[in-house]
Amino acid sequence: MRVNMHEAKSQLSRLANLARKGEEVVICRSGQPWVRLMPYRESIEPRRPGGLEGQIVIGPDFDAEDEEIIAAFEGSELFPEGE
Q1: What span, in angstroms and rounded, lies between the C-alpha atoms of 38 and 27?
Q2: For the chain, which end, N or C, has fewer CB atoms within 10 Å of the first or last residue's CB respectively?
Q3: What is the pTM of this model?
Q4: Helix, strand or coil for residue 26?
Q5: What's the rounded Cα separation, in Å, for the pair 8 and 28?
Q6: How confident is the model at residue 76 (pLDDT cuts 50, 70, 90)?
Q7: Sequence-distant (≥ 6) Cβ neighbours of residue 26 within 8 angstroms
Q8: Using a CB cutoff of 8 Å and minimum separation of 24, what contacts does 19-26 make?
């Protein structure tokens, strides 16, 4: 089911009940899908870090300083001189 934002605001309880019963509820903005309303579910199993060992490679120059980036930050308004 697709509903526009205004309808979703005025009928949130009804839409939430439909979503909890398994109905797919998509809220649209300007006719385009914007968000999906889904029932809350407790996580069945806790996340375990890892699992991608050997699949991600970090280059040897990962921590190398890049003078161009440093100059861009130091010359920006984020870090004005004298403060």
Answers
A1: 11
A2: C
A3: 0.50
A4: strand
A5: 9
A6: confident
A7: 1, 2, 3, 33, 34, 35, 36, 37
A8: 25/1, 26/1, 26/2
